[in-house]
Amino acid sequence: MADKIKGKGVISGIAVGNILLAGQNLDSFLVNYKPGKVDAEKKKAADALVKVAEALQVSIKKFNEQGLKEQAGILEAHRMMVEDPAMSGAIDEQIDVSKSAPKAVLDAYEVQAQVFEAMEDEYFRGRAVDMRDVGKRIAKYLLGIKEPEIAGKVIVAGREIEPSVIAGLPTDKIAGVILGAGSTTAHAVIIAKTRAIPTVVGVGDGIDQMADGDPAILDGDAGEILIRPTDKERKAYDEKIKKQEELKAYYATLKTLPAKTKDGKEVILAANIGSPADVDAANGFGAHGVGLFRSEFVFMGKSDVPKEEDQFKEYKAAVEKCNGNLCVIRTMDIGGDKPLPYIQVDKEENPFLGYRAIRISLQRKDLFMPQLKAILRAGKYGKAAIMFPMVINVKEFLDAKQFVEDAKMELAHEGKEFAQDVQVGIMVETPAAAVMAPQLAKYVDFFSIGTNDLVQYTLAVDRGNAQISYLYNHFNPAVLRLIKRTIESANKEGKWAGMCGEMASDPNAAILLMAMGIKELSMSAPSIPRVKERIRNFTFTRAQEILKEVMDMEDGDKIKEYLANLKA
Ligand code: PEP
Ligand code: MG
Q1: Beta-bridge partner residues of 426
Q2: Mean pLDDT score of the chain
Q3: Which ligand 1 atom is at minimum distance from the Cα of 389?
């Protein structure tokens, strides 16, 4: 019998693969490491380089024999980074300043990673991740941590997983994701959603029952993981996997059909993305443009502020890929919980209520202006919109809007081409913005409701806390009232309201939102077919009746249950 671990399924589908433990923190190993004299440490480091290169060579051969050319190619590049003579010199220099061999290796590769990150060429910049990976691999060898030999598909597991871990692995290699934390809106999960990778969160200490390389089956619908399944257990999943393939084929038939009710009410279904490449995947699911480009991904993993030119290239690529549909680019939502080396944030008691998002942008012209200019320039290549996160009052919006006007002036001065007609709107993700929606609606071009944060701030329920996740419900009447108010306020002023929080991907929520007058729902692209199917099977008239009933109900859980049992 396999070990069975329960969690919360957040991205549906069955995944079969070998466990890859991610986000392993080496700190405790480093503390326990007993360094020898300088020469001894240098010798240990030199031996480690040889041994790691040999181990990589064995894996490269294996991948080549299996025809896995791409994996072999990646490891070949890693082998060259290990054997680079400049690196052994750099490691020795670190040991000379009293560092242990593993720490010296980590630091030497980190320095090199930062050099790569600063390069103009995108390919070389991407190599920074590999450099860090290689440094960690050698350090692990020195610390006696076994490196797993994993071929084929992996299920990435960790108490917490850095978004870059998921983003850094090739899509065809990740079968599933397991997160110890309870968050359904962790950025690792958000990336997994974009790629439709079956995911289970909130397994807590269940992570300790897994070892690198363990074969596993993950059921993203049941929220279950089987570690080391027997042949019999594996066979039992064959039928489910077959059904999954059939459903995928059916959803593909919906791709070009509009999200229109039987009585003719249409809603735009757009995608949430983290990089221009995500737009290609989104188009494959029938997305009509981008409702949220989380631009912080452009800022993450860099040692310095990304230049206007670099940002411009990314935004332009995303805008172009939208094929004439709107591409809403949110200005960076960085802060205490998502730190960056070039933004000084003191330790905060409550980072979610701290120095973040628009609060940073308004104080840091050096960050804000290049971003606004890059978006305005990208607007020339299609249809772009600027969206500010975490706005709480009219003044913040007007101040930010002034920056947009200044950015236009600067661009005009510099003789650079840009779009004059870029829409400027806000995320409604704080209760303050929702309450003030009638006033804000006078100034903005649009609202996009960010329920991930709106729910947490309205209900005072941390979006990542598994223990109280039963309270985190977007159908809570308090939340529904704020959403309804926001949508109605926009419509009253002739502006449009959309939604880009996770609620938008809930087909039952789509019914209510449509009746409230929402114009656009933006979600992780793989959810688009499910939402579209629900809308196409409904009438707008029926949706309005349902909304009326729901707004008379007092309990969020009952509303959820009522909607789950609805017939069209
Ligand atoms: C939200 O808060 O709903 C949202 C879309 O933003 P993020 O998840 O990036 O905080
Ligand atoms: Mg948010």
Answers
A1: 388, 447
A2: 90
A3: 6
Structure tokens, 73: 């190619």
Cross-strand partners of 449: 428, 499
Beta bridge partners of 21: 157
**Whole-number Cα distances in Å, 395 to 119, 400, 444:** 38, 8, 12
Ligand 1, pocket-test mutation among 427, 454, 461, most atoms within 8 A of CB: 427
- Whole-number pLDDT of residue 165: 63
- Mean pLDDT for the stretch of residues 409-425: 98
- Catalytically active residues are 187, 500
Residue type at position 229: P
CA distance 193 to 466: 19
Pairing outcome for strands 520-523 and 268-273: parallel
Q: How far apart are CA 321 and CA 383, in angstroms?
A: 10
Rounded distance from Cα 389 to ligand 1 centre (Å): 8
Q: What's this model's pTM, rounded to 2 decimal places?
A: 0.73
For residue 519, the tally of other CB atoms under 10 A from its CB is 19
What is the rounded CA–CA span in Å between residue 145 and residue 377?
A: 48
- Sorting pLDDT into bands at 50, 70 and 90, what band is 351? confident
Give 480 or 239, the one with higher predicted confidence. 480
- Interval between CA 390 and ligand 2 midpoint (Å): 7
